[in-house]
């Protein structure tokens, strides 16, 4: 399945994403400022954690994680 996130600030030059500790395939569309990511299989029911790290041309960095549940 393919999912989309919208990014509203500066364009990232370095990105990484992990879901439950596994690297996630993604593609960034700079004109739309959208990030598309691909999951090879649907998520199992239960709690999952998405971790991310981004940096921009000015050297600003942000990283974090979010936890969510699939019923």
Structural summary, described in words:
The structure is a single chain. This protein has a 4-stranded antiparallel beta sheet with strand order 3-2-6-7, with no helix packed on it. A 3-stranded antiparallel beta sheet has the order 1-5-4, with no helix packed on it. The chain is globular. A hairpin with a 4-residue loop joins strand 6 and strand 7. With 71 residues, it is mainly beta. The chain is built from no helices and 7 strands. Helix content is 0%, strand content 65%.
Extended strand count: 7
Specify Rg, calculated over alpha carbons: 13 Å
* Major β-sheet strand ordering: 3-2-6-7
**What are the low-pLDDT stretches, counting only 5+ consecutive residues below 50?**
1-6
Helix percent reads under 10%
N→C terminal distance: 17 Å
Strand proportion, as a percent range, falls in over 45%
Biggest sheet record: 4 strands, antiparallel
Query: How confident is the prediction overall: mean pLDDT?
Result: 81
SSE string, helices as H and strands as E: EEEEEEE
What's the helix count?
0
Shape: globular
Structural class: mainly beta
For this entry, give a set of tags.
disordered N terminus; mainly beta; single chain; 71 residues
Structure in a nutshell:
This protein is an all-beta fold and 71 residues long.
Question: Could you outline the blueprint of secondary structure elements for this entry?
Answer:
Layout: E1 2-6, E2 12-19, E3 22-23, E4 25-29, E5 34-38, E6 46-56, E7 61-70
Antiparallel strand pairs: 1-5, 2-3, 2-6, 4-5, 6-7
